[in-house]
Design goal:
Elements (H helix, E strand, L loop, with lengths): L2 H26 L1 H6 L6 H40 L3 H23 L6 H25 L5 H20 L5 H45 L5
Length: 218
């Protein structure tokens, strides 16, 4: 990937994060928008839109930081654990799923039913599973576990600040952009690399054909 495509990759991820943050706010913070519709206050509405886009952009940057950290961790894990790295990743995924249920439930002192936290963990696992299956289908079967590791473990680590806030509004405002950005980055990276490989192969074939058509004179 050249610098131009890297910059495009960065800004497209930013755009996805900002858009996801804004769309999520329409549902999570609907009362804030409604309060400025009657009477209609265009400046306040504009301020809300900019604010929630800004939040999405911040979470997009967090997502990109986590994604590149994941690329390093994956290489590091392969070098250290070698053939055991997939097993280590599966254990970490199971541990994080357990944490998503146990620790938030303990923090509420039983005021929130545990099945809500189970549903939350299952939903993240199910979404990550679907994305990982797409990744494996488009690349190879060995990519499934690392992709699931990113979507579950790395996303959850990035989501920790949102889980510590009171209420669920900012938890939703954070997790949706994170999932959207991580999904895009995971599925876009190999497509960009494949397009570069195809382009390089095409240019090599053209060069070979030109040499065949116009051989050098002895």
């Amino acid at each position: 990937m050249n610098s131009r495509k890297l910059v495009h990759f960065f800004f497209k991820t930013l755009f996805i994060g900002g858009l996801a943050g804004l769309l999520t706010s329409f549902f999570v913070k609907a009362e804030d928008y409604a309060a400025n519709l009657q009477p209609f206050n265009v400046m306040e509405l504009f301020g809300l839109v900019i604010f929630f886009i800004g939040i999405g952009l911040v979470f997009s940057v967090i997502s990109q930081t986590g994604f590149f950290a994941y690329l390093f961790i994956n290489r590091f894990g392969l070098g250290m654990f070698r053939s055991f790295w997939p097993t280590v990743q599966v254990l970490l995924i199971a541990f994080v799923i357990f944490d998503l249920v146990y620790f938030p439930y303990q923090a509420t002192d039983g005021e929130v039913a545990i099945y809500w936290f189970i549903l939350m963990a299952v939903a993240i696992l199910a979404y990550g599973w679907i994305v990982a299956k797409i990744k494996a289908k488009e690349t190879n079967r060995q990519a499934f576990i690392p992709a699931l590791f990113l979507m579950v473990v790395i996303t959850t680590v990035e989501w920790v600040p949102g889980l510590r806030t009171e209420g669920t509004d900012y938890a939703w405002l954070m997790i949706i952009p994170l999932l959207a950005c991580n999904t895009y980055q995971l599925l876009a990276l190999h497509r960009i690399n494949n397009s570069d490989s195809v382009k390089a192969s095409t240019e090599a074939n053209r060069s070979s054909q030109k040499k065949h058509v116009n051989p050098k004179k002895a």
